[in-house]
């Protein structure tokens, strides 16, 4: 069999395979979160999210808002040295993010059926 014929069969099979893969995954909310940071942040974003009274008080100070919190929960970094520790019948996660040239730290308690933002802290400036 000539190379051109083999290549044509290969392309036909490749196109059919791509079609079936697209058919299977279309319409599904499929995510590929392989790294621990992405898995934790995705878990916190997909649960019902609540704010503690201390977090609401910080939000009322107007230097941070809920859009900044969502951005930090999407692009932030989880500090695993201080996180994943039992705390108030859940697990505490420390998430570091940056808003408007200000670095912040979110303390989020991850329960089985919800996530609670416990505290918002401005990160101290390192010299």
Largest sheet: 6 strands, mixed
Which descriptor suits the 3D outline? elongated
Radius of gyration: 22 Å
Counting structural domains, the number is 2
Quote the beta fraction: 25-35%
Q: What's the CATH topology label of the largest domain? A: YaeB-like fold
Work out the number of β strands: 6
The helix count comes to: 4
The CATH level-2 architecture of the largest domain is identified as 2-Layer Sandwich
CATH top level of the largest domain? Alpha Beta
What is the structural class? alpha+beta
Q: Please give the share of residues in helix.
A: 40-55%
Order of helices and strands: HHEHHEEEEE
The whole-number mean of residue pLDDT values reads 84
Distance between the termini: 70 Å
Uncertain segments: none
Keywords: Membrane, Transmembrane, Transmembrane helix
Transmembrane segments: 7-27
Organism: Flavobacterium circumlabens
Protein name: DUF4258 domain-containing protein
